[in-house]
Design goal:
Elements: H1 19-25, H2 29-38, H3 46-49, E1 52-56, E2 64-69, H4 77-82, H5 85-88, H6 94-97, H7 107-110, H8 114-124, E3 131-136, H9 141-149, E4 153-157, H10 167-170, E5 182-185, H11 195-205, E6 211-214, E7 233-234, H12 236-239, H13 247-260, H14 271-274, H15 285-288, H16 312-327, E8 331-334, H17 343-354, E9 358-360, E10 366-368
Helix pairs in contact: 1-13, 2-13
């Protein structure tokens, strides 16, 4: 455990997994795939989750990149029951995106088709000075061809997205692409905001930093996000210092760790503590070992955060990227709204200062340099 002061530690707030563990776990992917096959999930091939199969569209034209993911898959158990596998893994073409409606989100978004909510914004209003890369599942190859014809870099993966993950993590594969001096992570349903250019200026002003992210506040529900799944930026020439093994291998290792730990009573995602969405805790391993199915049943699982459901990408960022970037002095934190009464935000900022990371206002004024 990394000591912040005599009484307070930052990484005690949640589990963290250092690079050497993730690197080693990536070698156990065969065991994880075998476990998935034995538990009725043979189609979940971790070895293919983060592999690019085919690329459509132009090669890099500019020095800055916006990266995102586009996939169609249920994001929780209820949606998986309503939309069976045949629906979200069947081949989809560009015309399908104009007919299929968004599954989740605000009512306004649900009234839109996938094309209206996710595709049209960046096709009709492409940002200046940026290349755009969109990662797609294997069942959307025809969509990739169409995007490529419209000047978008379309990276078609070897695997469909079995849920919200691994699709939500594909966009992070660009973090190592040193053909770019700047990479910004963007949700396709969010307009191209000023933050795209702000993060670039901030990173350019702090050449030692590898990752720029916004400092958040604790929500009304009591959750705190260390790195939002999008709207953060990296300098690829420096990201190797976050993961020497590479972001792809780190994500494979983290996914493998998640799968191999899912049948333990002490799950590293904290599910025994939180229980399911209905408030029922997972049975301990000693209680489950004698029943026909020893791993947590669907009724016992948390529908969020656990692979492959909603929030898994931010779990990877929080438990792996935040830890490595912070302790190695590679984090640049953008403090837009400071709340002195928020203990988690104070702890976050104190941690950044302890490891010599810079905290700046949007106007680029340096608040603290250890």
């Amino acid at each position: 455990m990394i000591q912040l002061t005599e009484e307070r530690t930052i990484f005690a707030q949640s589990a963290w997994y250092p690079e050497n563990l993730l690197d080693g776990m990536a070698d156990l992917v065969v065991l994880a795939d075998a476990h998935l096959a034995k538990t009725g999930r043979k189609r979940w091939s971790i070895r293919n989750f983060y592999e690019v199969d085919e690329i459509f569209g132009p090669s890099p034209q500019k020095r800055r990149l916006i990266t995102s993911s586009l996939f169609y898959a249920p994001s929780n158990y209820q949606m998986m029951e309503q939309y069976p596998e045949s629906e979200y893994t069947r081949p989809l073409d560009f015309a399908d995106l104009r007919k299929i409606h968004v599954l989740r989100g605000a009512k306004r978004k649900r009234n839109q088709t996938i094309y209206e909510a996710y595709v049209r914004p960046f096709l009709e209003q492409p940002p200046e000075h940026f290349d755009i890369r969109v990662c797609l599942p294997s069942n959307m190859r025809d969509v990739g061809k169409a995007l490529g014809a419209n000047g978008i870099q379309a990276y078609v993966m070897k695997s469909p997205s079995v849920g919200f993950a691994p699709g939500s993590c594909w966009r992070y594969l660009a973090m190592d692409d040193q053909r770019y001096e700047y990479v910004y992570v963007q949700d396709l349903d969010v307009g191209m905001r000023r933050a795209v250019h702000q993060r670039w200026r901030q990173l350019r002003s702090h050449p030692k930093s590898a990752l720029a992210r916004q400092v958040h506040q604790t929500t009304n529900e009591g959750t705190f996000t260390f790195i939002l799944g999008n709207r953060f930026a990296v300098r690829p020439i420096r990201t190797h210092a976050i993961f020497n093994c590479g972001w792809q291998r780190a994500m494979v290792g983290y996914t493998t760790l998640c799968v191999l730990c899912e049948d333990r009573w002490c799950n590293f995602l904290g599910e025994p503590s939180f229980g399911s969405d209905q408030g029922d805790p997972i049975s301990t391993y000693s209680d489950r070992i004698n029943r026909k199915v020893p791993w947590p049943m669907a009724s016992e699982r948390r529908r969020r955060i656990a692979f492959p459901h909603y929030g898994f990408d931010e779990q990877f960022l929080q438990e792996c990227v935040y830890y490595e970037a912070t302790r190695k002095g590679l984090m640049l934190s953008i403090l837009e709204h400071e709340n002195p009464h928020d203990p988690m935000q104070r702890l976050d900022l104190e941690t950044q200062r302890q490891f010599g990371n810079q905290v700046v206002r949007p106007a680029k004024r340096v608040l603290s340099i250890a």
